[in-house]
Amino acid sequence: MFSELKPLPTDPILGLMAAYKKDTNPNKIDLGVGVYKDEQGHTPVLKAVKKAEAFRLENETTKSYIGLAGNLDYCDKMEKLLLGNDHPALLANRTRTAQAPGGTGALRVAAEFIKRCNTDATVWVTTPTWANHISLFEAAGLTVKEYPYYDYENKGLLFDEMIEALKQVPKGDIVLLHACCHNPSGMDLNAEQWQIVAELAKDVGFTPLVDIAYQGFGSGLEEDAQGLRLLAATVDEMLICSSCSKNFGLYRERIGACSFIAKDAAVADVANSVLLSVVRSIYSMPPAHGADIVNTILGSEELTQEWHQELAEMRDRINGLRSLLKDSLNAKGTSQDFSFIERQNGMFSFLGIDKAQIDRLREEYSIYIVGSSRVNVAGVSKDNIAYFADAVATVLK
Ligand code: PMP
């Protein structure tokens, strides 16, 4: 059976990570992998997380299963983090949440859940989107189609084209939206644009699925959820897939959530029974550790405050680097204008350089960037930004 298999190409990011590891150049820079890094290039465990883990070690009393939906206190706190404490969809008891193994696990659960709701649903994703979105939904047997989103030429949004395309989406299909810090482009919708999309969802009859993997990495915890909240206040039904990988720095603990909002509490209960049966058939029950950490932090005023501060430090560093990168690159006087880096949000932006220039950066300067030219802004530091800007200016000549 196994000998019939054909090898698959390695994921380009994983290949790039391996090559970076092997590189002995002391000036090497990794802008490929999508994790937050501090000024020293580390992805630290947050202090609030360390404290919550110490508490857990002392106070955990059982390793018995935690149930299909996971830690219910965690689910409750995540709904409030996502929607705000007093959101109408929460007050009307229309929201249900299942803890999931990371944002990816949440998306896979959502995909199987969508399949149960409507076998023929097509999932519409932004062009471009996080590559795994497409494989995830296709793996669940759903059709994936794209709608215009990023304007490569003007480094902005193709908003009119996006709206025209969404007007044509058949009723009952799913439209995936990135809540904030769009991966890979960094280009987000503003509040006015979110409202237009929300009205459109209602008129056209598609169901929004909001992927929120970077809440707090753009402008703030509240600000980054404004589009999602607006949508939730407008439509009868929607899905939300969230991740605590980035904002709590819990990447390897695999903690996220799959939530949905139904038209009323009775429909929500029925749909929730289907959601939980989906979970049962994939991994039965989620792991406990990450949810317990998040629940402990959000359940303590002191730890929440510490977490907010640490999250703000990560966000401020990213936004500071965005300004610095823009200034350093623009100061080189190349024909490109890099001001877009400052206008975009989160860790990613497309540098907008070609394949040959990306190869030169890697071969001559040990600067590692994926083939699309997406860079992780958090991968540079104040110390090597000048080296990076010099290298980019040289390959652009
Ligand atoms: N959605 C998007 C847009 C992402 O960028 C990521 C992580 N790269 C995820 C979901 C999944 O995150 P997790 O690591 O929690 O599975």
Automatic annotation (TrEMBL):
GO molecular function: transaminase activity
Pfam families assigned: Aminotran_1_2 (PF00155)
Enzyme class: transferase
EC number: 2.6.1.-
Keywords in alphabetical order: Aminotransferase, Pyridoxal phosphate, Transferase
Family per record: Belongs to the class-I pyridoxal-phosphate-dependent aminotransferase family.
Protein name per UniProt: Aminotransferase
Record organism: Pseudoalteromonas viridis
